[in-house]
Amino acid sequence: MRLIGAALVLSLVTGCSSWKVAPEDIRPVPADRLLSHQQPLATGGQITVSRDLGGMGAGCYIAVLIDRKVAARIGVGEEAQFQVPVGTRVLGIGIDKADDTLCGKGRLNLEQALSVEAGSQHAFRIRTDNIKGVYITPVEE
Fold it and tell me: What is the CATH architecture assignment of 2-138?
């Protein structure tokens, strides 16, 4: 009985956690959901955002925000690259307000400042777990 109880607790704690997509399984965000920052910039940098598999809200898109404007609508297992000008950028994630289902009715607004230099590359993951909910973190090489 204790073993069953321990297994139940473990499944509840890890049940909504996401996991990193294997590089060969990452899909690009389709062009119709890439809304800005797609033109190459000679003196800019690149931001790559990927979304883990599984987790809470797996059936919903998440809005990727650059300088507080929607740059893409990203699904699970997808990745997008953004070409951004040099300077301090604000990278964030939020609710996909283009979605008129329950997915677009929640609350999510996380931002972080990012210093972009010419030729720099920055990578981030959108993750989920039972404690933090949905969040974005830099990819550790």
Answer: Sandwich (2.60)
Q: Which of 21, 14, 68 is nearest to 49 (CA)?
A: 21
Domain boundaries, the chain: 2-138
Reading the chain (141 residues) residue by residue, the pLDDT tens digits are: 555 544 444 444 445 678 788 889 899 999 999 999 999 999 999 999 999 998 777 788 999 999 999 999 999 999 999 999 999 999 999 998 888 777 788 888 999 999 999 999 999 999 998 888 899 999 986
Long-range pairs for 6-13: beta carbons < 8 A, 24 or more residues apart: 12/130, 13/130
Please, how many CA atoms are within 13 Å of residue 74, restricted to the half-sphere of its CB?
31
Q: What is the pTM of this model?
A: 0.85
* Cβ-based neighbours of 35, under 8 Å, separated by 6 or more: 70, 71, 72, 73
SS3 100: coil
